[in-house]
Amino acid sequence: MDNSKQNEGCTDTSTLVSDDGKNAKSVLCQRCGSKVLCPGMAQFSEKELFLPSMRKKSTISQSEGSLDGDTLTAHWLVDDMFNFENVGFTKDVGKVKYLICADCEIGPIGWHCLDDKTSFYVALERVNHA
Amino acid sequence: MDSRYDIQRRAGGGGFRGVSASGSPALGAQSRRRKIPPRPADFKLQIIIIGSRGVGKTSLMERFTDDTFCEACKSTVGVDFKIKTVELRGKKIRLQIWDTAGQERFNSITSAYYRGAKGIVLVYDITKQETFDDLPKWMKMIDKYASEDAELLLVGNKLDCEADRVITRTQAERFASRISGMRFCEASAKDNFNVDEIFLKLVDDILSKMPLEVPNKELSNSILSLQPEPEIPPELPPPRMRCC
């Protein structure tokens, strides 16, 4: 599989989003390459979400007031958790579960609110596309 | 709500009828423009991994598809469950794997974990007597809460620590033989010995029990809600333990 990294840094969505608004390429973990989504399984969606920074599990903490992280806008929206190839869910942080790589557990790569059972967001900036 | 169930039916609808996703009418006109339409999963199975603290439940789950065992990953921090995809018998199967690490006290794992499980992996540590002694208590939980037709697999983990072994293979075989339908194997998550086989065997056993045409309704119902259902007193299934 081509491990292109053209999506790192700025998010150029033109090559990633197909005509019907879905992911044209596979979505992969940036660290271990584990396949998160097959092509065509998610809808491109713009929604402002705050994700704690990657690579430090300790930053996901309910008690801390200010978290290290990014507000991200470009996401892949998945409507059924069983549409993922491989993904992990953290325990609840308030009403949110963060999505992580199922294999190396890096994350958060995405966001899910328990109030909306049909919305799972994966941040384009936190995954690779190939 | 309606659209959600449509999606679930579509995802499960492939069934055994062959999964040429391009032929699925539910995908509609949009998908015809795609070169490779997404292939839905054929089955969705819930698997739980239980066992006493420190037996290596999380390591087993990670080793399943990951090739980099992490010595430092000693305990589970914050991972609730995982979705993993395997292919077996030409079928694409989505596993929802619940690792119960961190909730090892028997009564703290809610019945919701057990109720929907099609496969239960019960793990002990071959180097720790107490983890083997705990097995009857885990079996009581399974008898009480799990579906009667859930596949059971007893796993003696840490085979890489053979020098420290205190539980013989024969002891565990004897234990497993007293429980109807329970398989037994030993494994090493560290050496990746038998780990893939564990899950694939379990999935294979589950599939072989399934009817050729799985009703869509059943698949829809098998989808777990993230929020546990309200606790209801479980109906007690007949115990699995045979009379000695």
Architecture overview:
The complex is a heterodimer of chains A (130) and B (244). By secondary structure, chain A is an all-beta fold. Chain A has one domain (13-129): Metal Binding Protein, Guanine Nucleotide Exchange Factor, Chain A, CATH 2.170.150. Chain A contains no helices and 9 strands. Chain A has strands at residues 27-29, 35-37, 43-52, 69-78, 87-90, 96-100, 110-113, 120-123, 127-129. In chain A, the strands form 2 sheets. Chain A has a 6-stranded antiparallel sheet, with no helix packed on it. A 3-stranded antiparallel sheet of chain A has the order 2-1-9, with no helix packed on it. In chain A, a hairpin with a 5-residue loop joins strand 5 (87-90) and strand 6. Residues 1-9 of chain A have low confidence and may be disordered. Chain B has 244 residues and is of the alpha/beta class. Chain B has a domain at 43-209: Rossmann fold, CATH 3.40.50.300. Chain B is built from 9 helices and 6 strands, in the order ααβαββαβααβαβαα. Chain B has helices at residues 2-12, 28-33, 57-63, 111-115, 129-133, 135-145, 169-177, 195-209, 216-221; strands spanning 43-51, 79-88, 91-99, 119-125, 151-157, 182-186. Chain B has a 6-stranded mixed sheet, sandwiched between helices. The longest helix of chain B has 15 residues, at 195-209. Mean pLDDT of chain B is 71; it is low at 1-34, 65-77, 215-225 and 227-237. The interface between A and B is medium-sized, with 37 and 33 residues.
Topology:
The complex is a heterodimer of chains A (130) and B (244).
Chain A: E1 27-29, E2 35-37, E3 43-52, E4 69-78, E5 87-90, E6 96-100, E7 110-113, E8 120-123, E9 127-129
Antiparallel strand pairs in A: 1-2, 1-9, 3-4, 4-8, 5-6, 6-7, 7-8
Chain B: H1 2-12, H2 28-33, E1 43-51, H3 57-63, E2 79-88, E3 91-99, H4 111-115, E4 119-125, H5 129-133, H6 135-145, E5 151-157, H7 169-177, E6 182-186, H8 195-209, H9 216-221
Parallel strand pairs in B: 1-3, 1-4, 4-5, 5-6
Antiparallel strand pairs in B: 2-3
GO molecular function (chain B): G protein activity; GTP binding; metal ion binding
Enzyme class (chain B): hydrolase
InterPro entries (chain B): P-loop_NTPase, Small_GTP-bd, Small_GTPase, Small_GTPase_Rab
